[in-house]
Amino acid sequence: MESIFLVMIFLSSIFIATEAYRSSSRTIQCSHGGPEIQFPFWVKFRQPHGCNSSGFELFCRENATAIRFPSHGDLLVKSILYDSRKLNLIDPKSCVHEVFLNLNLSLTPFHYYYAVRNYTYLNCSAPLSNPFKEIPCLSGARFHVYTVESSLPMPGSCKKIKTVAIPFSYSPYISDNTFGLGLTWDLPDRERFTSKGHHHILSIGRGNGKAVLSIGIIVVALVVLVSITIYRSREMQKLKKEQKLEAHKLLADS
Ligand SMILES: *[C@@H]1O[C@H](CO)[C@@H](O)[C@H](O)[C@H]1NC(C)=O
Ligand SMILES: *[C@@H]1O[C@H](CO)[C@@H](O)[C@H](O)[C@H]1NC(C)=O
Ligand SMILES: *[C@@H]1O[C@H](CO)[C@@H](O)[C@H](O)[C@H]1NC(C)=O
Ligand SMILES: *[C@@H]1O[C@H](CO)[C@@H](O)[C@H](O)[C@H]1NC(C)=O
Ligand SMILES: *[C@@H]1O[C@H](CO)[C@@H](O)[C@H](O)[C@H]1NC(C)=O
Question: Which pTM does this prediction carry?
Fold first, then answer.
């Protein structure tokens, strides 16, 4: 009897280990310590299934993880937080406001993680006085670029470049290159990826892997519980038998 339960526990363990391995093999990295890439993101040529032509394609550039935006170019992926759906990007040129100025997310599954406001980029032939702070990486010796509230009247020496909805205006106090380059994504409509021929749905993603693991753990826990219960009741029966025998012996002896 015990051996059957041992076999069941053994099989459950194998099942869990296999599932853990299978879900981990769906995750890849461009380099050791790099962001883990899994659904809905995918890497061309290295992961067979993904959301094709939907904006989630990443690529490995040397050791770095990168993403390409047609409106801007390549940005590096610093981290991907799947639970909070946050993609943290780094501009390799360290000019976040150049990214804000050019990046057009309208045809992508992404939008800024933080709430956006309309700001106008100004290109001025003369520097503006305080409190305006020019953006060094967009400015030159003879022109000065600023982000201003879009409702502000335009100074005479300036030309409007563009009004864009961005999470932050320029601040010289925040020099962190990654600041503000957080995107979030709308979960892709899985239907779109099942209907089209040979690239199939990646049906067991991270979430499902977790579910499988939990079910596995529950199964093992139940099996252990049941075997303990059965073992105990058998022990009890043994004990009762022994007590009966003892009682018989005592009766016989007296
Ligand atoms: C992915 O999309 C591109 C263009 O959008 C297409 O050329 C390619 O064949 C597609 N790949 C798969 C696997 O469907
Ligand atoms: C990539 O990683 C290898 C090994 O960690 C290292 O030797 C190499 O310099 C890295 N290359 C770049 C471009 O960072
Ligand atoms: C972004 O791209 C869309 C579609 O191409 C276009 O309609 C829109 O005007 C663009 N937005 C900006 C701020 O350039
Ligand atoms: C920015 O301005 C555009 C055009 O005036 C408007 O449609 C949009 O709602 C504004 N966005 C924000 C965040 O205020
Ligand atoms: C600002 O204007 C100058 C010339 O007037 C031009 O060379 C420069 O590219 C402009 N900068 C931006 C960010 O539009």
Answer: 0.67
